[in-house]
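Q: What residues go here?
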């Protein structure tokens, strides 16, 4: 097993020969020989084949299947995996369709099928008896006394394994639901599901939804093309889902593959049991259901080699890490699929607009909406939302007063972009040069910016020239904060202020308290920085080959900066946010896994080192940025505790009124 709660599952459908358990055992051995997994899940009745028909009623096949099971137990002495395989087994005087759990030379348990389909193309009750109350608690195989029943959970370290068979999943209340409530976090389904038009989508939905409903892993392995095709074709569909998300699936007959190329199918994934455990702690309705629908289950402990946890395998050099069989999304807030990203952006904008519309309808008549527009990403997105909200309720865009407030750090590039954007959108604009206001404030405070003297006859433009001569590493926090607060003061005197700050800035505290930190309603409050640029480009795509599209794309291409420090001598942006606090791509990755999953610092680092950042960041850079993230996250909770109202748009939010409550003076040592 992997560190940090990862558990590797292979769901496979190896080659099959009908009614030939000895040959099928060899195929299974070949599968195990090439598989590196903690657990290997095989299909329903895979030792004999599902389509044996009345051959199931013969002693020869029943005996051969039992011999193959004993042979499989012997084979597992040579592999490290737990194997779950299906076979027909004589129990008392009835034949039952069972799943066997085998490892290290031992058959640890047998789970019978609860529901037998006897409709359409299925007629299982002709051959098998379903699980029932009269079933024995154990059965004798030779000298072995083996636990038997649908009430078994197999413990393998953090993996608590529950098993059901094919039709069990199709029932109104699958047996796996009860197993999950009893503690099973890995649910397995051995299946023989034939291919018909559209059935694969239905199977996929059942697997995904059951994993989400049970807050569990759900692995599914179905019979493949080796089954008889007298009346049906079996596709070998294998899937692994985790809490409602499909991690991976195999190829299958029906998706363009043909039998001669599909001798076996399989999918291998590393599932995250720590994440499952945390989700179950958070979702209180899961615990409520456990109390209300508790069913007693017996535990069977499987032998295993425990792996270390903590910082096992975590170094600053990712080249030494064992590869995970799991996609670690480097941008968890941004879908990689273009059509999905487009749909996500549309939905987010709709949520933002709906939230603002409701708030606007409660304002006094003729209230002015004031918004600061800098020519940067965040204010552009907030303005887009405000314009759409006014359009939605039939307000004239003249109700929007967009203020452009150039300061000592404003470049002609961003100022021009802001002015063009406002003209294109048709909103009112007021331009106020805040530099003279700030100089008066510095004087009243007795502050000398960067040690420069403010003479009585000071000319602002000459002072601006002096500022451009400062060294690149010059710092003056008062100089920055006065500008930010001046802008907010001007906005607050004009009308109802629309906030522009995003969630990533809240996480890092990258705002001036009671300045850009404050507004009357913040439409961007739960939008991460890594998604803002895509939202702006998405809106631009609605107006191709127009001036609006052009200016929005220019804004999206502009480096992220608060523009509070003077530009360079050539007029370029001097103050890069990401140069100061590190890449937002990394910060959003850390934020997602801390808030959404509650992972430890070590696990977040482990995931970041596995994420395909395409060589942009060294292991040391990732570690340094993570340290900075935790330091800033803990020291800036006081700002998050009093953020304005705003709509939640995704699964991660830092609102103190719903999603994230944290004391401002919490100690970060344990993290």
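A:
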């Amino acid at each position: 097993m992997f560190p940090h709660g990862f558990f590797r599952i292979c769901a496979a459908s190896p080659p099959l020969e009908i009614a030939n358990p000895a040959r099928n055992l060899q195929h299974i051995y070949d599968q195990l020989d090439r598989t590196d997994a903690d657990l290997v899940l095989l299909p329903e009745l895979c030792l004999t084949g599902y389509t044996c028909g009345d051959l199931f009623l013969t002693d020869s096949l029943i005996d051969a299947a039992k011999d193959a099971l004993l042979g499989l137990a012997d084979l597992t002495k040579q592999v490290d995996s737990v194997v779950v395989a299906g076979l027909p087994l004589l129990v008392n005087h009835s034949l039952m369709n069972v799943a066997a759990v085998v490892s290290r030379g031992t058959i640890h348990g047998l789970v019978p099928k609860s529901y037998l389909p006897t409709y359409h193309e299925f007629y299982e009750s002709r051959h098998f008896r379903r699980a029932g109350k009269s079933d024995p608690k154990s059965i004798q195989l030779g000298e072995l006394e083996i636990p038997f029943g649908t009430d078994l959970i197999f413990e393998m370290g953090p993996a608590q394994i529950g098993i059901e068979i094919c039709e069990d999943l199709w029932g109104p209340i699958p047996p796996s639901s009860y197993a999950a409530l009893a503690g099973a976090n890995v649910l397995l389904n051995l299946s023989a599901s034939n291919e018909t038009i559209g059935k694969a989508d239905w199977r996929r939905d059942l697997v995904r939804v059951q994993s989400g409903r049970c807050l569990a892993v759900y692995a599914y392995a179905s019979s493949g093309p080796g089954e008889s095709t007298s009346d049906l074709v079996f596709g070998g569909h294998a899937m692994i889902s985790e809490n409602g998300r499909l991690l991976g699936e195999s190829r299958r007959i029906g998706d363009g593959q043909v039998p001669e190329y599909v001798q076996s199918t399989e999918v291998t994934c590393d599932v995250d049991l720590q994440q499952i455990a945390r989700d179950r702690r958070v979702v209180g309705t899961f615990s409520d259901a456990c109390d209300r629908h508790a069913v007693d289950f017996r535990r069977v402990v499987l032998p295993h080699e425990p792996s270390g946890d903590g910082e096992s395998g975590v170094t600053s050099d990712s080249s030494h890490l064992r590869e995970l069989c799991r996609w670690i999304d480097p941008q968890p807030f941004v879908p990689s699929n273009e059509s999905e990203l487009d749909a996500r952006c549309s939905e987010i904008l709709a949520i933002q607009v709906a939230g603002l519309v409701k708030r606007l309808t409660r304002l006094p008549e003729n209230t002015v909406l004031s918004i600061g527009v800098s020519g940067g990403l965040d204010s552009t997105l907030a303005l887009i939302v405000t314009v759409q909200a006014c359009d939605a309720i039939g307000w004239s865009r003249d109700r929007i007063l967009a203020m452009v407030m150039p300061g000592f750090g404003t470049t002609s590039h961003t100022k021009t972009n802001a002015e063009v954007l406002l003209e294109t959108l048709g909103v009112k604009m007021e331009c106020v040069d805040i530099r003279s206001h700030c100089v008066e404030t510095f004087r009243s405070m007795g502050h000398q910016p960067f040690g420069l003297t403010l003479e009585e006859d000071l000319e602002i433009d000459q002072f601006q020239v002096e500022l451009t001569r400062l060294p690149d590493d010059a710092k003056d926090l008062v100089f920055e904060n006065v500008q930010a607060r001046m802008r907010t003061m001007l906005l607050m005197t004009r009308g109802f202020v629309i906030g522009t700050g995003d969630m990533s800035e809240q996480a890092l505290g990258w705002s001036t308290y009671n300045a850009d930190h404050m507004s009357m309603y913040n439409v961007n409050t739960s939008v991460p920085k890594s998604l803002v640029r895509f939202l702006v480009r998405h809106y631009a795509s609605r107006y191709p080959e127009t001036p609006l599209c052009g200016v929005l794309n220019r804004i999206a291409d502009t480096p992220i900066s608060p523009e509070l420090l003077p530009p360079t001598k050539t007029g370029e942006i001097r103050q890069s946010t990401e140069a100061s606090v590190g890449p937002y791509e990394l910060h959003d990755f850390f934020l997602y896994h801390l808030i959404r999953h509650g992972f430890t610092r070590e696990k977040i680092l482990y995931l970041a080192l596995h994420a395909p950042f395409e060589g942009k960041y060294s292991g040391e850079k990732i570690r340094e940025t993570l340290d900075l993230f935790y330091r800033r996250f803990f020291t800036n909770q006081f700002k998050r505790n009093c953020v304005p109202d705003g709509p939640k748009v995704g699964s991660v939010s830092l609102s103190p009124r719903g999603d994230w409550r944290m004391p401002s003076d919490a100690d970060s040592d344990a993290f």
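A: Context that may help when evaluating the design: The chain has two domains: 6-303, 338-575. The CA atoms of residues 601 and 627 lie 9 Å apart.
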